[in-house]
Write a structure and sequence with these properties.
Strand content: 35-45%
Structural class: alpha+beta
Number of helices: 7
CATH class of the largest domain: Alpha Beta
Oligomer: single chain
Number of domains: 3
Mean pLDDT: 87
Shape: elongated
Low-confidence stretches: 1-12, 17-22, 24-29
Strand order of the largest sheet: 2-1-6-5-4-3
Largest sheet: 6 strands, mixed
Length: 328
Amino acid sequence: MKTIIFLVTMIVSAPYCMVYEVEKVVKKVKKDSTTFIRKLEVVNFFDDYLQYFNDYVTDTSNTSSLKTIAESYHLPTFQMTPGVPLKLVSSIEDLVKGVRGFLNQFIVEGVSSIKWEKLDIQMLTEKMAYVYTIVGHYKDNGDVFNKVGADYFVFKTDGVWKIATLILYSPEPYNNLKIKNEVYEAVFLNLKNYNDILSNDDIDSDYNPQVISATGKINVPAINISQAGDFVLFESKQQIIADRKSFIFSIKSKGATYINYDTVQIKMLSESTAISSNIASINTKDGVPLFKISVTYLFNRTADGWKIVFRTFHKPETILNLNPEKTS
């Protein structure tokens, strides 16, 4: 606050050119301050979240902690575990049952405490964050029973942070290049569909083959969170088509004719789960960039190939660091 007051004092007495530069600094200070506050909120949210797990591990009669854990999630929510079919959880009761079963399997093995080995928070917007963690499960004697990778997409809704999606996986890097290339192919096929629709004059028709194929790389159901923090559950192909057409109409009205990726990053979490974070340019027919967008996808491998189960748009030219330092 003192810094901002000092800068405002400078603005009052400075020449115009200096005023402009100082105003930019003030805006940056405010922006950085807001980002710091939001990140601190997420840190506190996850500290509390972990404490609820430990409350139950140390006293299994404390079932209220299970309910509090469940209430940390926005419903419906995806919970993704390697080797387990994708599950959309829609009730507090199902979440409580799942958390109890998950923790009880550790308790019978003698686990008495749970700790964050790694907690990395990346703010995508003021209302959206990606949280990469490694969780350690410890026995009474201090020995590590095991470590689990757990990544979260969290967002702020009605003034409260909620978990939109949880992905569990082995903390050991998964580096199957063949499968990773399958994900790249899915990312670019999804982009190709956008460009196919964008280049077609008959996009208003739901019977247009390009429009129908819009559903090809999107899972049903799928979760979408906008840059403004609005949560939408896609429950039908019709919803997906309507969403894609709305986006195409919007950018086409601005003169866009094609989209290209400037940056594509992919993180393999397991043989069936991957995250792709991308920056795209929206261009005119002359190749002039109109603006950029950033989007992050969560992919799940199905019998029909890789499907997007979660999507979020975020700050332009913001991309996830999908390779934070791992803790062994």
